[in-house]
Fold these 4 entries.
Entry 1:
Amino acid sequence: MADELKTTIPQDLRHLRACLLCSLVKSFEQFEFFGCDNCEEYLGMKNNREMVYDCTSNNFDGKCIGIYAISVSGRLPPGIVRELKNRGVIYRSRDRSSNI
């Protein structure tokens, strides 16, 4: 259980990023070393620095229990959105910046 929390909950509040698909908030290093707890099967961020940059954003608003962002600025690249759709995953952008 302690090891599981170490991969999910950020140890410090610097360099945090939010997954553009599920809004999970982790450090850049946590996404790179462990991937996204919810989306790894689809996004493949583990050990892939480029995918971490493409599939996460450092611009997000708010956090809630479980360390999820309320709003995440940015969108997944079109190729990833097409691949998600082909696999039956519906992508809903969590970018609320244009609604303000």
Note: The longest strand covers residues 60-64.
Entry 2:
Amino acid sequence: MGDVKLLLLIIISVTGLVLSAVFHFCSLFHIYEPPRELTILIWIGAMVVIYPAIVIAKKTRREVNVKDYKKAVLGACPRWLLTINGLIIMYVIGYLIFLIFKKYVGSPAIDSGQGVMTNISHGFAGHWMGIYSLAFAMLYTCKRLKETPGVNR
């Protein structure tokens, strides 16, 4: 039963990552502004997936009981996942700095009150990408770590 929950959380995190990337791209280039209800749903999904990911990671650390947990996690996490996660986190931090800079230097265009919400969607979608990618990396690594027979238990 635990594997089914873990797989479900992985699917939610991947779906959330893809949706947040699409929303971020679309709002960044003014292609599509997601409705508020969908925005709230994605935000709730991020919270639903990140907290269990943290709990599962801590539980896996106790179950696996290796001397160097960090080395075991990095060994179980594929290089492509580490790279993608690092790039997304760097992008999120860079975009946050850009938004802070933009707030003090320039002001957004306001079209019928939509300019303000567009900038909020940019920032939130960027943060969602970071949250969902971290959750996916933690969950996927925990799944691989539990399946790895060579880990000291």
Note: The mean pLDDT is 79.
Entry 3:
Amino acid sequence: MDLIARKNFAKKNYLRFLCLNSHKLKDCPNNYLKCSICQGKHNYLLHEDSNRKITFLLNVNTDCNRDTDNTLEDGIGQQEMSNIELDAVNTTINSSTSVNNAKCVSFLPTAKVLLYNNEGGSFLFRALLDSESESSFISENAINILELKRCNDRLSLNGISGIQAGLID
């Protein structure tokens, strides 16, 4: 859906431009939210900027099969990170770096999900789908919007080659 269609949909369904929910302004628990692009009082999906460019990171792995011929000296595997710019107006993708003979490209898909708080209020979020992940995380913003209670847990962070990067309480 393009920007004009999104705005028309929000107006037609009496959705607030900030949180895209149908409650009244005085009942909105999301008044502290701002557009992540310009910090304006609207949802980033309704942000209007014809010169806007969004930068994505694309992980290009030229060693998908983990052949020993293509590994680096430290055994990590040959990977390059490419910055890709998505021109929001023309929706064309331009790669800023090139990768020779790339065997596979990894994209992490996203999905729009409707989550409910304890009072039954619904909120639209975007979720990152990673089938290889062993843990799930939620943003501080989502915790505040859904009014969730926190529980403490110990998390071990491991970096490249399984090197422990630290502990988070």
Note: The radius of gyration is 21 Å.
Entry 4:
Amino acid sequence: MTTDQIRISVFKMQKNDDMCYRRLRVLSGNGIKKKQKTPRIKRDRFSKYEPYFYWPADMKRPDQIEHRIGVNWLYVWFENWATRTGAELKFKGEPKEYEPFVRPDAFVSLRSSVKPHLFFGEFHRHESGNEFDKMPKYTSLFQNIIELKAQGIRPYWWVELRDQKIPTLTVITTGPKKPILKRLVNENPLGIPYELLTLDELKERCVQWAQP
């Protein structure tokens, strides 16, 4: 996670950011008294203009950092959405459960006193050069679910609990929305509900919602 993600998720009730920054410096062994303790986390950043990102000190530096940070923003977004709506955030299921149809970046269950809310999440990093091609895969997944339900088979734990017909697909991109929106509309025969945001839009909302 990055400094901004930790600040929003863990220190969101603080009126200033000093406590967050001090705590992270201490845990990473970069406090006022450097090397005063064995670091519990490690940190790095892509440039001096960007926030640090952190990982456990007993692990090697993770691969695909940019993608991992993007997926983390999805979870920060869902967590803030739950807090703002009074829902309880529950993480259920692993992305690999939905193979061979699709491997989502995220899947969460939010439960309120009114109804459950289910979301699949996708982070599209425009700089990778890869196109967003997940809609046919999600269509295959949900079509399979529909067919199994018709046979009285419950393919996933959430199928009988969901209140909406199909979970919402939340897509976050670092690039322009127009090409992805075109695919969300034109490659969507089942009418999968979706939400499309740029990463900057999502960050702005998370910051606004985390204000004390």
Note: The first helix runs from residue 3 to 10.
